[in-house]
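Fill in residues.
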């Protein structure tokens, strides 16, 4: 069945959009546009339009990604960067210097380009509310990428039956050799009291059946880390690896 067009609704929408959009020049070639779409702070979205002859550059001036970074959401490395780029590609938006989201367009295509940039800004903004499980899986992929890039051989997702018979999952296991013991790696997105207790419980269950093994906790240091939890891991001979310092441990894991 063919959908019937209702021009009255379209006219009302366009009228609302026009009445609630403001613009002002901030230089001879740059104009800032405030559009009636809200970001997660309930602030109106702002665009910057720079004219250069017959072409226009429409951008967010780096606000969207920088705001996420300031709030602890790293979207410029590992799997998050890939996720960000996939999101932008869907709108024809590019990531430039200084975290800028932008589209280069013409006056004829300006309206569509402005609309696409706004939609991409809101979509990237939504990365802030990605569920904890998704964020954890992204960090796990960051850990996997690090091991692959360092050419470290491992077995992923290994379940070990502990002393009680319960199964405990480790994200990566590196085989022992003549100079190093068997090494277990657990990716920890948020190192809090609960995560520390669960990790140590599982490891104390595992050690009796893998007595010469070593455990490394690879920790997402984009999230807050208390020294109390680091000390607790060290007290049980677990090696804490802050992800930003991962290169320091390549020799221990690769050899």
């Amino acid at each position: 069945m063919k959908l019937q067009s209702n021009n009255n609704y379209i006219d009302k929408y366009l009228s609302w959009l026009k009445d609630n959009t403001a613009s002002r020049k901030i230089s001879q070639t740059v104009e800032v546009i405030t559009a009636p779409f809200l970001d997660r702070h309930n602030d109106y979205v702002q665009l910057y339009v720079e004219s250069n002859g017959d072409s226009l550059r429409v951008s967010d001036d780096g606000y969207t990604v920088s705001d996420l970074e300031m709030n602890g959401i790293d979207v410029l490395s590992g799997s998050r960067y890939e996720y960000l780029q996939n999101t932008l590609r869907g709108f024809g938006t590019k990531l430039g210097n200084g975290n800028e989201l932008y589209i280069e367009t013409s006056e004829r295509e300006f309206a569509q380009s402005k609309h696409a940039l706004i939609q991409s800004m809101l979509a990237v903004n939504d990365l802030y509310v990605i569920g904890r499980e998704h964020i954890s899986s992204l960090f796990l992929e960051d850990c996997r990428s690090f091991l692959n890039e360092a050419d470290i051989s491992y077995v992923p997702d290994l379940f070990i039956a502990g002393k009680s018979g319960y199964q405990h999952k480790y994200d990566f296991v590196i085989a022992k050799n003549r100079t190093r013991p068997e090494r277990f790696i657990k990716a920890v997105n948020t190192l809090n009291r609960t995560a520390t207790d669960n990790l140590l419980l599982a490891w104390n269950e595992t050690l009796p059946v893998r007595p010469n093994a070593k455990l490394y906790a690879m920790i997402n240091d984009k999230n807050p880390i208390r020294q109390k939890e680091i000390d607790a891991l060290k007290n049980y001979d677990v090696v804490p690896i802050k992800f930003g310092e991962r290169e320091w441990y390549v020799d221990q894991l690769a050899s």
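Helices lie at 7-19, 63-70, 78-89, 110-125, 132-149, 193-206, 227-235, 250-254.
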